[in-house]
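Thread: 2-deoxy-2-fluoro-alpha-D-galactopyranose complex, take 2
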Amino acid sequence: MSKFAEVFGTEPDGVWRAPGRVNLIGEHTDYNDGLVLPIALPNQIQVTASARTDGVIGVATSGRPGVIEFALADVSPGSVKDWAAYPAGAAWVLREAGYDIGGANLLVDSDLPSGAGLSSSAALLCATAVALLGLRDIEVDPAEVARLAQRAENHYVGAPVGLMDQMASMCCTAGHALYFDIRAMSTDQIPFDPEAEGLSLLVVDVKAPHRHVDGEYAARRKSCEQAAAELGVPALRSVAFEDLDDALARLSGDVVRRRVRHVVTEIRRVEEAVALMRAGRLREVGPLFTASHASLRDDFEITVPELDVAVDTALAAGALGARMTGGGFGGCIIALVETSATASTLTAITEAFAAHSFTPPASLSATPSPGASRVS
Ligand code: GAF
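Output below.
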């Protein structure tokens, strides 16, 4: 008997999936209407589902016992807590948007580490949304599903995140990075095949306990919005790189100046990285990664010692570039390394962590993978 039948007593109608992501460059730029460049990971959330006719959603996950049930008609922000808030949020936002999703039983499986900054929240929201829509044969543009998932995360879960993670989970394609311009709401698929150039993208989960993540993320976002208001622009994307010094001179405080400098220079680094990748000069993207990390560490102040040690050690071991990726305060680093140096770089990071008495790090494969889809 399948796990689904064991839990729900019926066979499923289908299986849907949505991946996690790592962002190559463009950090904390999405909520500033900026530019980002994520790839989707092979690691994903899978939702096995069957339709119900009673307007009730039942959710279960392989990792925990029991089924949590809620009536779709009664779902409102805060009504379902803990991990089930994500599937409940997806159901809520689809109902609010007018989609007739009825009821469903959903079994959630994941090989995507949660709390590692790999966007497991967005993947769970997106996987649930595509399953609920797919069960009813409702077709919705992937970018619109991403927007709905973001709305659920903002208003149901209560996290003031931008749109990068959901777009990566919905719109990435195999072998490409997703160049997403948030202000224009336009995307471009940029071929990304490090192996073809003898390179590898090493992803290392530094296993640092997330410290104050939610509050600090919200604080960074607020500082950026305040700076934009002081400068009289709708978002920091409107500050051209060439006008940065003028803008900095007009701001009232040193902290806010550093936040703005990060955002404006980071958006510029995304443009430069994309131009180099388009020209087949991937090796030259390395120093942009390293500059991004320095900016996130010194100006945006969202790194932790584990991230800095991992990046410094990767660079000392010969990486072409390295940076933290994701929201910060823990999570993962990425390093662009010669394929022949992948194992020795990882060993060097593991040894450095032992010397600092940090929890041993873990590595992941970063093959650029496709966005959400129906599996069967
Ligand atoms: C988190 C958020 F969810 C994203 O929207 C983005 O802001 C990212 O941090 C930082 O680039 O993953």
